[in-house]
Amino acid sequence: MAKLAALREDSGRAILQLMRQVDPTASRDVLVRTVDELCVHFHVVAVATLLVDGNPQGFFLNLCRAAENWRRLLTHCRLKQWALPASRHMDPLLGAVAAGHWNLARQVAELSETRWLPDEEYRSEHARAQLFLALVSPGTRDVVIPRVEALEGLGLETETDRVACARALLDGDADTFSEAFKHAVLVHGEDIEKRAKLFTTPVTRFAPKRAIWLEGLAWLRLSERADIASFDEHFQYCPPLARTPMTSQYAGDWVVSLGP
Description:
- It is a single chain.
- The protein is mainly alpha-helical.
- It has a single domain (2-230), classed as Serine Threonine Protein Phosphatase 5, Tetratricopeptide repeat (Alpha Horseshoe), CATH 1.25.40.
- Helix content is 65%, strand content 0%.
- It contains eleven helices and no strands.
């Protein structure tokens, strides 16, 4: 926890510096890189606020700050008629969903890239992102099922749990969702532990992922929205405190001057 608290201090300073650096006249690549880094630091602050301070509302608010900055970047790219960032940049959206801020999550999802950008993402990353975008908005079976089938069609064992969770959400099948999600948590844990041992793993970017599975929390919020959530079980990387309702109202603060 002491290390996470120290990283939060570093990220707090980085946020102030990055927000001063953002220039609407900068190039597309510079802005994408800067706002992406800004979102990482907001997530570090969010996770530390949850785990060090035991403050879920501060956790949710900082997740929303990251998502709102990403939304503004996407809006700016569209206004400039620039290429959008690849849809694999999912963390800002996952944060908004994990916070239960559905209006913000829908806006981010609807502004996001839908095309596969092979120079910027793997096919599996794109298919996974497109499934999640469809689940958030519009969330209807006719839109989600083709995305499920596209991910399933890749034949990757690593994606079977996501496919099962998505189908269970559409079917309102609480038991199937729970079983698939429990296995997904185990797979995620194994991957995280492997990455934690690599010297090449970036400390700041990895820190929030080491403690909290943002995608997992987002899946659990989707299960709440589908009215199939269970609060009887506790999942590693998805602490109960992070599943409480967001009662604080995000006021749109701590944002860069990009887009409306």
